[in-house]
Amino acid sequence: MTESTSLFEVGDLLRALRRRADLSQRELAARAGVPKSTVARIEAGRGGDPRFRTVERLVEAAGGRLVIGSDDAGSGVPAADVTPVPGVPHDGLRDEAGRRYPAHLDVWEVEQPRDWPGAWWAQWWNLPPERWPRPLPPATYELNRSYRDRRRWADRIRRDVTVRRVTEGLAATSWRFLAELPDGQLLGELRAHERSPHLLYGDLVDAREREVVLDGILVAGACRRLGIGRRLVAALEVEMARNGIRAAHAVAEDDGIHLLLACGYQLQANRPCVLRLERPDERRPARRR
């Protein structure tokens, strides 16, 4: 990665590089062999212009490379090798003392108790604000690196996953939707089929009408609660509208019920029983009694 310091303030550049490398000020200082106070002073813009060698060591320790060039002479680095460093998204937030939050952490605003891990009571009691044991901070963050990595991984999955309908090799009445990453990794699948209400209700309805029956939704265990199931259901609804189909039916259990309710489905009073048929394995010997 290369970058030109003429495009950025040095302090903002270091914060952006630290965030990309997931390094605290102390960790970056240890890698570069400089005091932590030096990193803090540069990022805060105090103490005048830092020495070039110090900046170079800090940039390289964070995984970057410092390039010097001029307007009429190229730096010798191909433009394709220059990757912009995204800024720190929460730099506009401040804590109660007016300080910026650590650049390498994921910081989010706290609007309700459930947004703050310190609100232990929010999981059990819905208390009015005047009875909260502690006031809510303006923003919060997660210090545990494994939790932070999991959050960033989940953000990448939400950003990169796409949903498409598969029609090749299927009957016209079979519907299949896949949730995939750009490299083709399968994360979720929805299957459904069409049926004619005329077979159920006879002449009480127009025989040309069609309905969809949801056969099932599967999402990879590590990717559950990332909204993939909702995106699959949304893709199904778009395809239903395109085909002029208004009704969809489903039989679900456990988490599947909560997912469909969140997507607008309603429980039916006359829903059928869930039946199961499992034939005995003839290869297994019968147990003696």
Side-by-side strand order of the widest sheet? 3-4-5-6-7
What is the string of helix and strand elements? HHHHEEHEEEHEHEH
For the termini, the CA-CA separation is 72 Å
Number of strands: 7
- Percent helix, as a range, is 25-40%
What profile does the largest beta sheet have?
5 strands, mixed
Low-pLDDT stretches are 1-8
Compose a concise summary of this entry.
This protein has 289 residues and is an alpha+beta fold. The chain contains 8 helices and 7 strands. Helix 1 (10-21) packs across helix 3, helix 2 packs across helix 3 and helix 2 crosses helix 4 (52-61).
Overview of the structural elements:
There is one protein chain. This protein has 289 residues and is of the alpha+beta class. The chain has helices at residues 10-21, 25-32, 36-44, 52-61, 145-160, 197-201, 228-242, 255-262, and strands at 107-109, 139-141, 162-166, 174-180, 186-195, 211-219, 247-250. Strands 3-4-5-6-7 form a 5-stranded mixed beta sheet, covered by helices on one side. A two-stranded antiparallel ribbon has the order 1-2.
Defining key terms:
7 strands, five-stranded mixed beta sheet, disordered N terminus, two-stranded antiparallel sheet, alpha+beta, 29% helix, 289 residues, single chain
